[in-house]
């Protein structure tokens, strides 16, 4: 039963309500999000024949966690790991696997507990000790924020982008998060609050950075016939794209991400343009991350991101381009330091018309979820998913 | 498990170059591009035909961000090399708070013991300041009119009066240079304590591999102690290191003069007192000199050699030679309150105290100083060095009051040694934390003096502390306290940790611009009072042009 690669549907979605998982194992979190997403669409563990996970799945890829979750009928497995964007790539791969007839119901799980596990901002299961550039790393402590801080500094230098403009990204997230009872940070903040928060890595303040949380989520993707048999609003995966960006031995543009390529592929496949997208989940590890990706996906021209995000333009019901209406990684949830899954989950809610009424966009025919895994301006991988209602 | 693969992939040429400070990149024969770091194929065109080339190691800052988690001041940076490629790396040993996009940089591999060097860069400005610093240090030992030479007699037997922390430290410094020491104190317990202290300092040196067991026992064999001043009769160098009190010092010097052999140098370790007044109680003022060591004396490199009015050239020559022999950086200075180093420091501390009364808190003041580039802020430094107690005790004779310090002292807040001072410290931690008790002392002090607390900008704090030091430095030059202006910078580098990548107060001021400094001082004079009245030398240079660094000491007009 072969189909084209745009006839798969996201039928189940679930976000774990926890933000701090004391006393609960990572494996248990994976099982809970799997059950939650299956319950959402009315399918069972036995219906799942394709399984996708990243390095946060404890054990050894899917080898042990699949059994722990209770997946007995798997015909297709994939443990692609590209950091925070992994789950967007899983959607791409699941759609392809379904189109090729390799599986009918694909489950993607994501969960981790860096807070309860005291793991800081590391990515579970990722080991850099043999990476080829390790001996050439600078003799200073390095964290993702330093990379993005340099991107922000240069963006300001080249385009006159300001800290106030970046702060608007956080302000928008906080306006959305006030309606999300599970959000890690629900307090509405203003530009001044962001600028007055302590500097973490100039020019990025603490409130320019995402939250660190425990938790996770899961997605179920099914072939069209199965989706039509389920009593849920339809969310078709209309286009996907992924791309890798490397240092190129020093010949790279630190202000451009892999999102240019992943976005182009996804838009072409979906047959739409950025102007057709009325809601977007945009990876928000830092405020600058959002700005760069909006430019790279074509929502605005390179260099104009600062003006584009300012003055509430990202706030649902206020601006022209609402994003991350769950509060995003900046306010709601950034489980395991990987925000790709939660980007998908809010995109699904919006596409179904099931986001919080205060933030639900009116025209939700076309929505987009996009993520960057790894650390800009260095090596990273982007994944773009475009969803269509109905 | 293999943790480093430096020996893999034929990277020897890269690491050999790195050890010599050279940046070696890979060049593609087909597309002519240079790239970093080595991989199997040219990342641009895919060619397998590539070779090593040594680059200039120069470039400019493309982007950067200050690393706040590092103990060392450093910045992550993307450097755009002259040859084109951009390298994610770090900026080290430079003024990272002042770095701007476009600043020129050069490669500066961080050499590590038992490990591969790490690629890093430093700014050209920092490199120039380091070159200046090296010259300044070399020239500081040459004194016009005094020929250092082989004919200057080495000291063969030293005596140190006072077995406190300073006396023990000075003794250790002398012993480590193979100079026999008699340590003298009336109190036998103090002598025992000092001996034990010296033994443990030597043991630490042995355990760090800086000293062999044999050398350590030779040092100890060279140490004698005595409770009687008569024991100095065989010494050609006597260093007094007792409590900082003029009356006490005069009594001791009279005795030193009585028992020390003819021709012996009589030195005082005073940090502020008038050496001429001390010398006047002896019959040999020509042989009296100040040897101002910095605590801990066996570690700190700076030695201020203080020349009195009557001090003979030969005494100066011997003292400077001693300084070099005991591996210090000796700098000749004249008599004034605080000499060179402490005069600037005390002016700064006094001003910092005023800032507290006007509304600043210690952590803001200290952060501003650290961001300026100094290794420590003024309040954390006082907490470490016991400044509250020293200041309190120094005022008991005169009865002068200081609300903040008197209150802190009364509350047992003496600094790190009591776990709290300007800040409080958790057990076994040196991390300063602001606490409510201290804050309420500062607020009460403002109320006591009738001062309305206000928010004070970082820039005002920096100007009031740093420009004040510059002004004081200008006065030192016009008063002829220093032999040459750069000596002030040498003092501040080796005694107070002013970074060599920032030169020193004189070097910094000349680069910042004297007319701007003069203008700011004049504004501060109006706002805050005459402690900011620009020095005559500064006023002249601001109008005529010229630099503090090239001014002639002792000549303000």
What does this entry look like structurally?
The complex is a heterodimer of chains A (390) and B (557). Chain A has 390 residues and is α/β, with parallel strands linked by helices. Chain A has two domains: 5-121 and 214-234, Peroxisomal Thiolase, Chain A, domain 1 (3-Layer(aba) Sandwich), CATH 3.40.47.10; 143-212 and 238-389, Peroxisomal Thiolase, Chain A, domain 1 (3-Layer(aba) Sandwich). Chain A is built from twelve helices and eleven strands. In chain A, the strands form three sheets. Chain A has a five-stranded mixed β-sheet with strand order 1-7-4-2-3, with helices on both faces. Chain A has a four-stranded mixed β-sheet with strand order 8-11-10-9, sandwiched between helices. In chain A, strands 5-6 form a two-stranded antiparallel ribbon. In chain A, a hairpin with a 5-residue loop joins strand 10 (366-374) and strand 11. Chain A is globular and about 55 Å long. By secondary structure, chain B is α/β, with parallel strands linked by helices. In chain B, the strands form four sheets. Chain B has an eight-stranded mixed β-sheet, with helices on both faces. Chain B has a five-stranded antiparallel β-sheet with strand order 6-5-4-7-10. A three-stranded antiparallel β-sheet of chain B has the order 2-1-3. In chain B, strand 8 and strand 9 form a beta hairpin. The radius of gyration of chain B is 27 Å and the shape is globular. The N and C termini of chain B lie far apart (71 Å). Chains A and B meet through helix 4 and strand 5 of A and strand 2, strand 4, strand 5 and strand 6 of B.
């Amino acid at each position: 039963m072969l189909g084209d690669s745009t006839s798969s549907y996201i039928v189940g979605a679930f976000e774990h309500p926890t933000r701090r998982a004391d006393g609960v194992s990572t494996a248990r979190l994976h099982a809970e999000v799997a059950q939650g997403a299956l319950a959402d669409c009315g399918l069972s563990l036995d219906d799942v024949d394709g399984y996708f996970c990243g390095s946060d799945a404890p054990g050894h890829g899917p080898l042990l966690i699949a059994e722990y979750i209770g997946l007995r009928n798997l015909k297709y497995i994939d443990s692609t790991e590209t950091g925070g964007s992994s789950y967007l790539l899983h959607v791409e791969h699941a759609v392809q696997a379904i189109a090729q007839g390799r599986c009918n119901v694909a489950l993607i799980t994501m969960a981790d507990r860096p807070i309860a596990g005291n793991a800081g901002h590391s990515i579970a299961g990722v080991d850099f000790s043999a990476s080829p550039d390790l001996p050439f790393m600078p003799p200073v402590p390095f964290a993702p924020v330093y990379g993005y801080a340099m991107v922000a500094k240069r963006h300001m230098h080249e385009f006159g982008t300001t800290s106030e403009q970046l702060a608007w990204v956080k302000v928008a997230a906080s306006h959305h998060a006030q309606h999300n009872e599970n959000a890690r940070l629900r307090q509405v903040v203003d530009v001044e609050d962001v600028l007055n928060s302590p500097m973490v890595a100039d020019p990025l303040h603490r409130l320019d950075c995402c939250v660190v949380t425990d938790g996770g989520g899961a997605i179920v993707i099914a072939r069209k016939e199965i989706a039509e048999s389920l009593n849920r609003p339809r969310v078709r995966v209309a286009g996907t794209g992924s791309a890798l960006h490397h240092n190129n031995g020093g010949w790279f543009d630190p202000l451009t991400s892999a999102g240019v390529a992943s976005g182009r592929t996804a838009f072409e496949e979906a047959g739409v343009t950025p102007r057709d997208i009325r809601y977007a989940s945009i990876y928000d590890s830092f405020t600058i991350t959002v700005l760069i990706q909006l430019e790279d996906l074509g929502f605005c021209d390179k260099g104009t991101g600062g003006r584009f995000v300012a003055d509430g333009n990202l706030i649902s019901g206020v601006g022209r381009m609402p994003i991350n209406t769950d509060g995003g990684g900046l306010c709601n949830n950034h489980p395991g330091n990987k925000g790709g899954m939660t980007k998908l989950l809010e995109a699904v809610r919006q596409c179904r018309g099931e986001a919080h009424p205060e933030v639900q966009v009116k025209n939700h025919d076309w929505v987009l979820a996009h993520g960057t895994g790894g650390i800009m301006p260095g090596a990273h991988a982007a994944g773009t998913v475009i969803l269509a209602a109905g | 498990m293999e943790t480093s693969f430096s020996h893999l992939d034929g990277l020897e040429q890269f690491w050999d170059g790195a050890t010599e400070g050279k940046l070696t990149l890979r060049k593609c024969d087909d597309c002519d591009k240079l790239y970093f770091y080595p991989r199997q194929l040219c990342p641009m065109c895919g060619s397998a035909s590539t070779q090593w080339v040594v680059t200039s190691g120069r470039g400019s800052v493309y982007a950067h961000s200050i690393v706040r988690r590092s103990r060392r001041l450093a910045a992550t940076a993307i450097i755009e090399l002259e040859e084109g490629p951009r390298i994610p790396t770090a900026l080290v040993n430079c003024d990272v708070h002042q770095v701007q996009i476009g600043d020129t940089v050069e490669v500066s591999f961080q050499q590590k013991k038992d490990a591969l060097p790490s690629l890093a860069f430093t700014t050209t400005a920092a490199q120039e300041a380091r070159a200046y610093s090296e010259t300044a240090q070399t020239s500081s030992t040459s004194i016009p009119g005094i020929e250092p030479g082989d004919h200057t007699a080495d000291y063969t037997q030293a005596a140190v009066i006072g077995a406190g922390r300073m006396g023990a430290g000075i003794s250790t410094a002398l012993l480590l240079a193979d100079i026999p020491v008699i340590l003298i104190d009336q109190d036998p317990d103090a002598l025992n304590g000092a001996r034990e202290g010296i033994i443990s300092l030597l043991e630490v040196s042995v355990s760090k591999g800086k000293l062999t067991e044999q050398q350590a026992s030779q040092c100890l064999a060279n140490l004698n102690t005595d409770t009687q001043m008569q024991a100095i009769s065989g010494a050609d160098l006597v260093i007094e290191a007792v409590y900082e009190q003029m009356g006490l010092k005069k009594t001791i010097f009279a005795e030193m003069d009585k028992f020390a052999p003819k021709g012996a140098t009589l030195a005082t370790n005073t940090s502020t007192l008038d050496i001429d007044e001390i010398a006047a109680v002896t019959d040999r003022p020509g042989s009296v000199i100040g040897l101002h060591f910095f605590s801990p004396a066996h570690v700190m490199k700076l030695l201020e050699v203080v020349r009195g009015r009557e001090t003979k050239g030969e005494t100066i020559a011997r003292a400077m030679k001693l300084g070099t022999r005991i591996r210090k950086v000796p700098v000749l200075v004249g008599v004034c309150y605080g000499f060179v180093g402490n005069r600037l420091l005390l002016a700064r501390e006094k001003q910092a105290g005023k800032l507290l009364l006007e509304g600043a808190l210690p952590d803001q003041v200290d952060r501003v100083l650290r961001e300026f580039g100094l290794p420590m802020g003024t309040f954390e430094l006082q907490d470490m060095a016991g400044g509250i107690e020293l200041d309190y005790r120094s005022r008991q004779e005169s009865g002068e009051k200081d609300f903040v310090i008197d209150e802190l002292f009364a509350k047992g807040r003496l600094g790190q040694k009591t776990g709290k001072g300007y800040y409080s410290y958790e057990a076994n931690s040196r991390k300063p934390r602001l606490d409510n008790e201290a804050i309420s002392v500062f607020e009460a002090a403002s109320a006591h003096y009738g001062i309305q607390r206000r928010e004070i900008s970082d820039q005002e704090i920096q100007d009031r502390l740093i420009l004040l030091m510059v002004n004081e430095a200008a006065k030192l030059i016009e008063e002829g306290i220093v032999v040459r202006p750069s000596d002030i910078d040498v003092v501040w580098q080796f005694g107070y940790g002013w970074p060599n990548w920032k030169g020193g107060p004189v070097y910094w001021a000349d680069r910042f611009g004297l007319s701007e400094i003069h203008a700011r001082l004049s504004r501060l004079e109006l706002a805050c009072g005459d402690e900011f009245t620009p020095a005559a030398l500064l006023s002249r240079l601001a109008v005529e042009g010229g630099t503090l660094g090239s001014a002639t000491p002792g000549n303000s007009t």
